[in-house]
Amino acid sequence: MHDDPYGLGRWGDDLFEVLDNGDLGLRNPERPDLPAVSLPSIVRDLDQRGVVAPVLIRFAPFLHSRIDTLNESFGRAIGETGYGGTYQSIYPVKVNQQADVIDRIVEHGASWNLGLEVGSKPELLIALSRDLSDGSLIVCNGVKDDDFVQLAISAQNIGVSCVIVLESLGELDVVLRVAERLGERPLLGVRIKLTQKSSGSWASSSGDRSAFGVGASDLMVIVERLREAGMLDCLELQHSHIGSQIPNVNEIRSATSEAARFFVALRQQGAPLSYFDLGGGLGVDYTGEHRSAAHSTNYTLSEYCVNVVETVEYVLDAAGESHPTLITESGRAIVASSSILVFDVLEATYYDRTERIEHQPDDHPLLKNLIHIHDYIDVDRLQECVSDAEYYRNELRQNFRRGLLSLEQLARSEEGFLTVIRRLKQLARTADSVDEGVEKLLAQHVDIYHGNLSVFQSLPDTWAIDQIHPVLPIQRLDEAPTRRAIVSDTTCDSDGKIDRFVTAHGVSESLPVHDLVPGERYHLGVFLVGAYQETLGDLHNLFGDTNVVTVGLLENGDFELLAETEGDTIAEVLSYVEYDPRVCLDSFKKRVDAAVDAGRIDAAGRRTLISTFRHSLSSYTYFEH
Ligand SMILES: Cc1ncc(COP(=O)(O)O)c(C=O)c1O
């Protein structure tokens, strides 16, 4: 067995280890001296408390350590390069707006003067109502109406520094109008549309085609109009953002360099810029491949920091400009690792059979041929055997469709086919190399593990943008996985599946898994899901929010439950789609009473039916054991 079949060592960032009993252990990055805590034991404990799977577990220490590491890395880069300014991180609220997450980020980030970036009025209200540290900023992007601008300008009167980032010429009109009405001076930023394009998932909306920010000509108009209004000195921040999850460090370097050139030019126009905000983009190496590809990055955090700092320093020094406060709005890199989704496997559809079936005298000749493959199956004849098995099975199916094969014979054919596939999979595992075509064909016959989750609710990016998140069993990691599977979810949608996985050798279309043991729960964990997934999730098939807990790790190797949010009940999801659960219950009662009147069920039957309906309304939307 490969001793790291899930590539943990490559993407796990030293946060995980396999414990002696095969459980996945979570290390406390804030206290590396403490033993790792078993994730399955946390899941069991939660289950006993009634917090059942699927459950999203947020690990406070992972979140804290990412905030610290980001700030420390920039601090080191600044120290090493002799950069004259400081660094300040701004967390973009949109990446995970859940109150418990935001509050922990704000609280833990206070010592770093961490601020918040908002992209809408609701997000602004969140930011304004948080207890941010005195030195921190709120950076306002997105569309801004009068109320938005008024709140942002007047926030200064209560000691909150709220930078209104101008995204368009139209927005300047709103800001000038509201500022004049209030008789106050705003704290302004301007968002530059960089021409540098990014690769990765959002390549097509980067560069000139970006919907956000202003290009050089609109920028000049903004500068002139601010000058005329006597407000050019309010322009303190320059913003740019080339996209999220930038895989290639050179794109970051080029974007930083271009942004720095704009910065110099704006200062030369008379804007007293003191903040250089580079937006988000710091990627997460989801696959651990460490290369420039959509779900990976070809740089480390410290390389990112050094590159950004050095580039800004180089451009500003060449122009003789002083060094501003550097800001990044890294969201994904802060929150991704802190959430783990754990779900149980309800059952498996195995695409092979252990028992070889024996040929019977009245078997169809094609079935006889199919069974006969076992007589010549060999590691050197994989391709031939795969082709034969596919051919005979197809012919037998054709015969059934034409009425030439009985249902019993079709069933034996399917069984026979699966016994051959099992043998072929075993042989393929022992082969030095397997032909790509054979591998592809065998990959079509991997098992399906039915997971108690909704991909659309909990992992929407997996469906929408083919995002890859590492998935692995959280127990039995001391046992070699004997099967390969994809994961299907509980929605009735064929897209509700996970079929790309991180494995020892990169990305694979199937996940190494263990045989399910009857009566034993088998939990899979999906990792690095803290960014974007919770809010983007939807109610497909009315599977609602999962249970969510925030967990801390204690000195004695135990864990503590810091917060719990119960998942949606059925009554709640019904009300989201315009049903009144009470009215549903009353209508159901009427139907049941009509059945009692018609003598179809008795009073006791009525009672059972109605209490089951009522109980279901208050229950979890997922499969309950
Ligand atoms: C303006 C802005 N800042 C920050 C971010 C966060 O980016 P990331 O999650 O890649 O750090 C985004 C997301 O795209 C954004 O639009």
Task: Name its key features.
10-stranded mixed beta sheet, globular, 8-stranded parallel β-barrel, 21 helices, binds pyridoxal-5'-phosphate, alpha/beta, 625 residues
Ligands: pyridoxal-5'-phosphate
CATH fold annotation of the domain at 60-333 = TIM Barrel
Radius of gyration, in angstroms, nearest whole number: 29 Å
Query: How many helices in DSSP terms?
Result: 21
Instruction: List low-confidence stretches.
Output: none
Number of strands: 23
The percentage helix is 25-40%
- On the 0-100 scale, what is the average pLDDT? 94
Specify the biggest β-sheet. 10 strands, mixed
Query: Which shape, going by the Cα principal axes?
Result: globular
CATH superfamily of the domain at 60-333: Alanine racemase
Instruction: Kindly name the structural category.
Output: alpha/beta
Q: What portion of residues belong to β-strands?
A: 15-25%
Distance between the termini: 33 Å
Name the CATH architecture of the domain at 60-333. Alpha-Beta Barrel
CATH class of the domain at 60-333: Alpha Beta
